[in-house]
Prior knowledge:
Elements: H1 7-17, H2 21-30, H3 35-53, E1 60-67, E2 73-81, H4 84-87, H5 90-106, H6 118-131, H7 138-156, H8 171-182, E3 187-195
Antiparallel strand pairs: 1-2, 2-3
Amino acid sequence: MTTQVTASQVKELRDMSGAPMMDCKKALTENAGDLEKAGEWLRKKGIAKAAKKADREVAEGLVSSYIHHNGRVGVLLEMNCETDFVAATDAFKEFCRDVSLHIASMKPICVGREEVPSELVEKEREILLAQIDKSKPEEIQQKMIDGRMNKYFAEQCLLEQTYVKDDKKTVEQFRAETVGKLGENIQIRRFARFEIGA
Length: 198
């Protein structure tokens, strides 16, 4: 027997989750109208959805600002999504703020590894090459350099950094969860971090 879901239940779940109306209705139907279970169902489906939405155009969004409480660090962030409707939601604004707070705290130099200036990558490789034990076979040396370069990117690139509010996930995993929750492709386009005296 199919559970009848009311419009007010759908609206309540949408307000709680930020997910699209049709997804909320389906979640409630699948979970016999139980709001809590429907919310969990939406979260579980979310990360799988993020991968499917990755190619969709993101022409809307927000420029968000964050000033740290001491007034000495600030961040400007451009975050893109598919519709102005999602850009106006509290959940999207909160995601922007959380990412800005992370940038203020963790000082990434760029969004993704493809944006790291080539001269910095070459310089880092040279340093690592000088530190490597030359008595090891060449393929082992290369694996060691590759491993250390991955560590370097994980320290410098926003998407690869461990998320400051949850050390069990990266910023990219946090972004993917948010895509699933909001039902739209979301991209961190660019940012600028300002710090007094830096």
